[in-house]
Amino acid sequence: MKVIHSIIELKETLCTCRSKGQTVGLVPTMGALHDGHASLVKRSVAENDVTVVSIFLNPTQFNDPKDLERYPRTLEADCDLLAACGAQIAFAPSVKEVYPEPDTRVFSYPPTDTVMEGAFRPGHFNGVCQIVSKLFSYVEPDKAYFGEKDYQQICVIRRMVEDLGLQLEIVPCPVVREESGLARSSRNTLLSEQERTIAANIHRVLNESRHLVASVQAVHDFVVTKINAIPGLEVQYFNIVDGITLADINDWKEASSVVGCITVFCGNVPIRLIDHIRYK
Questions:
Q1: Helices (H), 88-169
Q2: Can you tell me the mean pLDDT for 226-245?
């Protein structure tokens, strides 16, 4: 596997690949890779001639400097995992390489990017769109792979791709979970063993809520009340939304696709965990 740090070298390498008629898949990541990332990489490797995995901790999508500071950085281990998965290129640029000057572009796709994460992390999705659009321009992939754990992010990126008229396929990939049911996340490494056990209740309660025959509001209240009753967990938000627009719904019949998206704080030094559940 080739590790590339410059945009020019990346483009030159991919130009050679395309001259041979090879297809290119992209897996954007912020590093601290785990089995969830590995599943995306393996799928890209299976579906494309060349797989590029970006490892870039993007500062413009963090509105909390402490969150950025705490985010794990494990480049050497990440490259080992990618090589084992069969990726051909790891792209690990510096912040200066990606942002030689401040990126002043503004992306706006309400309500998709203004609810939930968009409401609680102002500027987050603008930063996501800035970096992902840059990666798309560097790599020009045929397909780009994203984990469904970040459900809202996929919806926003799809809006951006449509808005910019980009010719690529966004491939959503299923959530990879630990044996306990906890969604795999780079942030899980910040949890103690006890906190990981507690955090597994998020998925358990969401699953229980799928079996309720009740109104949207009753399901919402059930999830929030049950999780908040567990010591060490505190719900920041739980929204039951249209699975495409992410607009809140009040009745199950309002949308053909319905998803419940949740963010929960876990532990004494709260770690922010996200998950979702499909209702239909």
A1: 95-98, 117-120, 124-139, 151-164
A2: 97
* DSSP bridge pairs for 275: 262
- Kind of pairing between the strands at 2-4 and 89-91: parallel
For the cut 90, the answer to whether the pLDDT of residue 221 exceeds it is: yes
Q: What is the CATH number of domain 186-278?
A: 3.30.1300.10
Catalytic residue list? 37
C-alpha span between 95 and 92 (Å, rounded): 10
Q: How does the average pLDDT of the chain come out, rounded?
A: 96
Return the closest-CA partner of residue 241 out of 215, 263, 222, 259.
Answer: 259
Domain spanning 2-173: CATH superfamily: HUPs (3.40.50.620)
Among 92, 47, 97, 99, smallest CA distance to 74 is for 92
Residues 57-78: tens digit of each pLDDT: 999 999 888 888 888 899 999 9
Q: What confidence tens digit (pLDDT) does each residue in 136-195 have?
A: 999 999 999 999 999 999 999 999 999 999 999 999 999 999 999 999 998 898 999 999
Q: Which residue intervals of the chain bear CATH 3.40.50.620? A: 2-173
Distance in angstroms (rounded) separating the CA atoms of residues 197 and 193: 6
Locate CATH 3.30.1300.10 in the chain: 186-278
Q: Is the peptide bond before 111 cis (omega within 30 degrees of 0)?
A: yes
Q: Are 67 and 39 in contact (CB under 8 A)?
A: no
What's this model's pTM, rounded to 2 decimal places?
0.93
